[in-house]
Amino acid sequence: MNSSPRFKLFIMMVLEFFIWGAWLPLIFGYLPSLGFSPGQQSLILNAFPVASVVGMFFSNQWADRKFAAEKFLAFSHFIGGVAILGCGFTKDFTSFFLLMLVHCLLYVPTISITNSIAFANMKDPAKEFGIVRMGGTIGWILAAWPFTFIFVNWDAVNAVKTAGFVDWIGTVFAHPLTGDAAKAATKWTFIVAGIASLVLAAFSFTLPHTPPKKASAGAGEKLAWLEALKLLKHPFVLVLWLVTFVDSFVHNCYFNWTGVFLGTPKEAGGVGIAANWITPVMSIGQIAEILTMFVLGATLKKLGWRITMIVGILGHAARFAVYSFVPDSAGAIILIQVLHGICYAFFFATVYIFVDAYFPKDIRTSAQGLFNLQILGIGALVANSVCPWLMQSVYTVDKVTNFKGLFIVPLIVSAAAAVALALFFHPPKNPEVTAGTGSAPAH
Prior knowledge:
α14 crosses α18. It is globular and about 65 Å long. It has a two-stranded antiparallel sheet. The protein has 19 helices and two strands. The chain has a single domain, classed as Up-down Bundle (Growth Hormone, Chain: A).
């Protein structure tokens, strides 16, 4: 089992998403603690989506036709790992921004590349991808839990006499870091991410060889991303691409606001969860995602592309409805995190499988990049530009945040996206339609 290609693909996904999951959830509260303005925060946060745009037009072309995917993965994670490691040791805006930009420019394309390596080495992607991609979910969870112990006031713990391991654990959980100390400890999220990236750089050389794909007959040296972009002429592809942008915006609203919402004291409008429990609470969604990935193949077979994706989008609406209308119930807020699994697997993972099924083989990495342009690029760019401003300048007065009003925005947007998908997304039964020159047949 340990030597099987699928196991290696699984470990690849664990490490790939461990890196991202280590630093993303807490960066939104960390940047203000460094004294960065909302504009500076947006610049740093937007390094990731900007890298998605660059990756679409540059590195994905290499991954498709010029470079063995596993070697590209190793190079990207080595340089990118050193860069994100550096973010843990600087508090200067210019240095932090440049290091984050280098990391993102090299990391973001690897999301498409890992998908392509996985699809190239699976016999039945519709059945196998959910299990392999589940490794990414586990990686994200594993990245969250160590911080339960990093964000602990160890001086206070050591001052308490404990009897046995259980008593000691209780004491640890009862003494989280608070205030500036908790914010300062967030630097460890970048250090841990950097170490994981260097580990994946080394592990990449053990992955199945995935050579570049030659252009299809008659395609010559056409740009793979341009060939992928041309597929937007099919109405069903265009509709899905636009809905993907909207869902990405909503998805990034969740990451921009949830950590802050959970950690903000109740008297200031938040839930009041201790700093060392924020990432574990948010990881509940990833735990649920594991179960969702297990049933994704069966769900697609039973419900089809459109209904599965609609359910995924409505998961966002339901979660923000709870945030908006029962913000005083910590139990409900924690419990509703389980919907993250449905939100991710039933929409984003389904989109990746859909692309693999409907797009020509020689441009599939760029086709994945086309949708990552929305998932990780434009949707995130808009959210990261708007969310800090909305929270700090529109919905916060006298240090009290009107989270109810804030969460109504993604609630309405996600509901509208679900309706649009239901009305206008009609993929043909024959995936090969995208390989031709004509438009998709009407349904």
